C-alpha cells in the first residue's frame, strides 16, 4: 500500500479506523486535522492546506468505499489521490536535445543543481553542457567549473565577463556540440527588479525549452511569491527542490507547483554532483505527511 511510512501521529489516527468498514464524520475530522498539522509543519501554504483538506473531507464523507475496502485504506487512498492530483508526475524531460534555464534566489542551489542535472543527463547517454551566466555571486564561476569537472560534462563561463546576456549567447555557441544546454543564472538575496530584468533578457537570448525554478526545501511560505514572480517573468515549467537531505520537508515546492501550474523535476539530496534524483510522487508525499 502507498504511504506505508507515514508519520506516527497520522498513522496512529488512521489506525483507529482499523477493523471499521464505515467512517464517522468525527473520524474524518480527526484525520483531516492530523493531515493539516503534518502539511503545515512541512511548510505547505496555508490556503493550499485548507483546500486540500476540504477536498479530502468531502470525498471521505460522500464517496462510498468500494465493497470490502477497510475504512482506513479508503481514507488513505483519498489522501494520496488528492496529493498526487496536486503534485502530479515529474516534469517531462525528453532525453533529446534541449535547453534548460535555471531560475531562483541566491543560495537556493542553482549552480549545484545545474551540475547535478548535467551529470544526470550524461548518465542517460546525452552530452550536456553547463553555461554559467552568474556574474553577480563571487565564486559562482569557480564553483560551476569545479562541479562540472567532477561531473565530467562540458562547461562554459567567463570569469572576467560582466554581461550575463552576452555570456549566455557566447556559451550557447561555444558548447554547440552538446545536446543538452543547462543555463545557470544569477540569483539575488531577494526578488529585486534587476534580477527579474536580467533573467528576462537571458531567457530571450537562450529561448529555453524548459525553465526550472530552483527552491531550497526550507523555503516555507515564501515559495508563493517567488514562484509567482519567476513565472510571470520567464514562465516556470517545473521545480527543482534542493537540500532534501536536511530536515526540511519541501512543502514549499507544493505551493510553487500549484502557483505555476507545473510539476517537480528533480530533487537535490546532497552537495555532490551525484546527489540528485528524478522526482517521484510516492516518496515525496510520504515525506510531507511524515
Ligand atoms: P546558488 O546560489 O543558487 O547557485 O546556490 P549553490 O548551488 O551555490 O548552493 C548554495 C549552497 O547550498 C552550497 O553550499 C551548496 O553546496 C548547497 N547545496 C545545494 N544543493 C544542495 C543539496 O541538495 N543538499 C545540500 N546539503 N546542500 C546543497
UniProtKB/TrEMBL annotation:
Claim: Ribonucleoprotein is one of the keywords in the record: yes
| Domain called SRP54-type proteins GTP-binding: residue spans | 97-290
The alphabetized UniProt keywords are: Cytoplasm, GTP-binding, Hydrolase, Nucleotide-binding, Ribonucleoprotein, RNA-binding, Signal recognition particle
Q: Where, per UniProt, does this protein localize? A: Cytoplasm
Record function comment: Involved in targeting and insertion of nascent membrane proteins into the cytoplasmic membrane. Binds to the hydrophobic signal sequence of the ribosome-nascent chain (RNC) as it emerges from the ribosomes. The SRP-RNC complex is then targeted to the cytoplasmic membrane where it interacts with the SRP receptor FtsY.
| Record comment regarding domains | Composed of three domains: the N-terminal N domain, which is responsible for interactions with the ribosome, the central G domain, which binds GTP, and the C-terminal M domain, which binds the RNA and the signal sequence of the RNC.
Q: What is this protein called?
A: Signal recognition particle 54 kDa protein
> What is the organism field in this record?
Natrarchaeobius chitinivorans
**Section covered of the full-length record:** 1 to 290 of 462
Amino acid at each position: 500500500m502507498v504511504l506505508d511510512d507515514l508519520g506516527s501521529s497520522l498513522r496512529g489516527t488512521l489506525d483507529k479506523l482499523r477493523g471499521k468498514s464505515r467512517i464517522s464524520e468525527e473520524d474524518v475530522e480527526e484525520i483531516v486535522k492530523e493531515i493539516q498539522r503534518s502539511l503545515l509543519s512541512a511548510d505547505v501554504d496555508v490556503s493550499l492546506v485548507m483546500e486540500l483538506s476540504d477536498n479530502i473531507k468531502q470525498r471521505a464523507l460522500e464517496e462510498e468505499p468500494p465493497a470490502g475496502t477497510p475504512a482506513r485504506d479508503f481514507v488513505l487512498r483519498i489522501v494520496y489521490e488528492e496529493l498526487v492530483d496536486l503534485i502530479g508526475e515529474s516534469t517531462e524531460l525528453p532525453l533529446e536535445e534541449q535547453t534548460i534555464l535555471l531560475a531562483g534566489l541566491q543560495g537556493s542551489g542553482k549552480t549545484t543543481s545545474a551540475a547535478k542535472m548535467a551529470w544526470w543527463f550524461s548518465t542517460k547517454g546525452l552530452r550536456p553542457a553547463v553555461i554559467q551566466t552568474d556574474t553577480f555571486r563571487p565564486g559562482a564561476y569557480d564553483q560551476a567549473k569545479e562541479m562540472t569537472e567532477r561531473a565530467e560534462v562540458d562547461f562554459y563561463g567567463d570569469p572576467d565577463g560582466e554581461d550575463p546576456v552576452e555570456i549566455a549567447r557566447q556559451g550557447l555557441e561555444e558548447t554547440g556540440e552538446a545536446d543538452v544546454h543547462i543555463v545557470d543564472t544569477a540569483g539575488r538575496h531577494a526578488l529585486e527588479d534587476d534580477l527579474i530584468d536580467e533573467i528576462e533578457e537571458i531567457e530571450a537570448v537562450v529561448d529555453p525549452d524548459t525553465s526550472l525554478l530552483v527552491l531550497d526545501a526550507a523555503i516555507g511560505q515564501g515559495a508563493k511569491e517567488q514562484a509567482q514572480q519567476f513565472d510571470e517573468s520567464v514562465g516556470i515549467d517545473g521545480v527543482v527542490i534542493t537540500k532534501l537531505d536536511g530536515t526540511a520537508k519541501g512543502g514549499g515546492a507544493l505551493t510553487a507547483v500549484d502557483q505555476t501550474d507545473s510539476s517537480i523535476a528533480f530533487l537535490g539530496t546532497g552537495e555532490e554532483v551525484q546527489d540528485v534524483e528524478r522526482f517521484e510522487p510516492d516518496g515525496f508525499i510520504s515525506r510531507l505527511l511524515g
